[in-house]
Amino acid sequence: MVLERFRLDDRVAVVTGAGRGIGAASALALAEAGADIVLAARTEDQLKEVATQIEALGRKAVIVAADLQDLDQVAALAQTAVDSFGRLDIIVNNVGGSMPKEFIKTNVAAMEGAFHFNVSTAHALTRAAVPHLLKGDGGSVVNISSVMGRVSGRGYLAYGTAKAALAHWTRLAARDLSPRIRVNAIAVGSVATSALELVTGDEGLTAQMESNTPLRRIGDPDDIAATVLFLASPAGAYLTGKIIEVDGGIDQPNLDMGFPDLGVPE
């Protein structure tokens, strides 16, 4: 039965940035499919709430409140999974982000910081996970990239560059780690998370963003979580090195995503 291919019974996943938004929704989707989860984020109270929901689904959750900008702490999550559950099968590199900023204020430190938070963290955790993923039937790595990695938009210089790097890191890592470990990414469009509150709190900006999206709505974290489950499960067993665009159909080469002109004044 094809639906059985979406099951993850007794598999173990690490999800970063799991306290809210896409990370929390992804963790719950994986748990509903049968996986036990290591939840990592900065805010312990949020992680506890997600863990309670996972336990209500009949699965186990271990929470790790950590600064995931610290590469040692993020890499240690792989061993935490093995120590807690005896195995590791899935990595969801969700932690990342960068606030919009005009070009003239985007200094080298901002560029390097965006790369560190969006790419280096994914590399550190995946690299630490590889020996454990290889002990089982292989594994799956799912990276959360962004539509801004393939389109242009004002204010997204650091963020878009970092997410484009993460997308290509996905392709290169997939080749290096094949055939036992699959590595894929999701290029996320506008999704109603706390990171988008600047837009969703303004009716005009929300309307502009929806008009830029062919499906005429802002996405829901569960839209992304469903794709995470597909890529992490045997249902996605014949995919690696792919960037799945879950963005409501956006295809414009230039997209301001609802933000005002943040560039150099004329």
UniProtKB/TrEMBL annotation:
Q: What class of enzyme is it?
A: oxidoreductase
Question: Per the record's keyword annotation, is GTP-binding included, yes or no?
Answer: no
> EC number(s)?
1.1.1.159
CDD domains recorded = SDR_c
Q: Name one GO molecular function term.
A: cholate 7-alpha-dehydrogenase (NAD+) activity
**Keywords tagged on the record:** Oxidoreductase
Extract the InterPro entries matched here.
Answer: KR_dom (IPR057326), NAD(P)-bd_dom_sf (IPR036291), Sc_DH/Rdtase_CS (IPR020904), SDR_fam (IPR002347)
Where do the Ketoreductase domain residues begin and end? 11-189
Q: What protein family is recorded?
A: Belongs to the short-chain dehydrogenases/reductases (SDR) family.
Q: Which NCBIfam families match?
A: PRK07231.1 (NF005559), PRK07814.1 (NF005873)
The protein's name? 7-alpha-hydroxysteroid dehydrogenase
Species of origin: Aeromicrobium panaciterrae
